[in-house]
Amino acid sequence: MLLYFGLMGTKSGKALRKETQCSLLPHDHYWISSKRIVTPDGLISGSVEVNGGVIVSVVKEEDWYKKQRGRVKVIDYGEAVIMPGLVDVHAHLDDPGRSDWEGFPSGTKAAAAGGITTLIDMPLNSDPSTVSPETLKLKSFMCPSGINDFPMTNITHIKEGLSVLAKYKRPLLVHAEVEMDSEIDDGTHNDPRSYLTYLKTRPTSCNQKLVIGYQEHKDWWFSEGAHVHIVHLPDATSSLDLIKEAKGKGDNVTVETCPHYLAFSAEEIPEGDTRFKCSPPMRHAANREKLWEAMMEGDIDMLSSDHSPTKPKLKLLSDGNFLKAWGGISSLQFVLPVTWSYGRKYGVTLEQVASWWSDRPSKLAGLHSKGAIAVGKHADIVVWEPEVEFDLEEDHPIHFKHPSISAYLGRKLSGKVVSTFVRETWCLEKANMLLMPVYLCHLRLKKGL
Ligand SMILES: [Zn+2]
């Protein structure tokens, strides 16, 4: 399910705004300026001209004064970074059916507060799991998903699905873990409050099974233009090696990982702290280092949040039983500062962040009007301050539904989102000026079209 925060319509931005009164912005035509704008041609100091929700020009500072002639509205962000809004290709909003876990209103508020301007809902925990056959075709699980309504797939299903998707030039997104017998809690495990006990139930060999599938069937996997995209890869071991091998041969395979695999490691997870349980699980610190290496070398293409919340009750925070607690990391609002904070020591650049979070994900989703600060693209923009640090404590304005289950609480992060623009809608200005749910804005716009 694709959720566009803004809506592609036929009416002008002005007409839409009168109908909806959604945006914080009173103008159709305006400029936003900064000393640091991330464009496909690198970092520039200058201004971005937006008219009717579309970027109509991008000018360097030296050309700016000639062009604007003092007649237009300007929002000057000084040294803050202007970057394309994030495109999150994997987030669970659990709506319809489990909106008490998250839901579109709180989920999209959190997204906007985190600089995400487009997200693709993974409908696993929704009830029903999908609203149309088309959306179901996009994603599959190779292990039991934990939700009966979303059954697992196997190599045969993938083979059949790929040939159909290839015709429509659509990627197949695969959760590439295979069930292991040891996942069943037969009472013979070690302490269930130990994260390492849980880790044993989902070893790296779970991921390797996909790769074995690839080796056995590579003659058809990528035939007829098929594109396989591996979601949330946690391993930098043999799975990644084989993905690299497939890429090296020219096969159309892409792969993403998630900020929590780059931020956390098995060794540091406290006993009984089930906020850290997710699937696939976070692995050891040495693996995390290798994942960063793969990011920096371009072997991993992009990032997604895999925001996967639930009700606090199901996290079993007081029992701390890793084998029984719900697996999923709540992160939607924090993925940008987390990527930046944990990536700085590896030398991550602003251009890389834009590539991992905007350019490549928008291409994967076929959203060619998004993903860059460039003429003709939608004005989906995040403005943020990479150098500003903040403590992520209980009193931080967190907009997803259940902040208490987020593993990021208590961390110091760097990179504060200042503003989020989604086409005609200015969603966020200074974290405390948030926002109508962008989702409601979306629905109201739709009604008017
Ligand atoms: Zn997921």
Structure description:
By secondary structure, the chain is α/β, with parallel strands linked by helices. It folds into 2 domains: 2-84 and 381-448, Urease, subunit C, domain 1, CATH 2.30.40; 87-358, Metal-dependent hydrolases (TIM Barrel). Helix content is 29%, strand content 21%. It contains 13 helices and 16 strands. The protein has helices spanning 13-20, 61-68, 104-113, 133-136, 155-167, 195-201, 204-221, 238-248, 259-263, 285-297, 335-343, 350-364, 438-448; strands at 2-4, 29-39, 42-51, 54-60, 73-76, 81-84, 86-91, 116-121, 139-141, 172-175, 228-230, 253-257, 302-303, 380-391, 412-422, 425-429. A hairpin with a 2-residue loop joins strand 3 and strand 4. Helix 7 packs parallel to helix 8 (238-248). The longest helix is centred in the middle third of the chain and has 18 residues, at 204-221. It is globular, with a radius of gyration of 22 Å. Bound molecules: zinc ion.
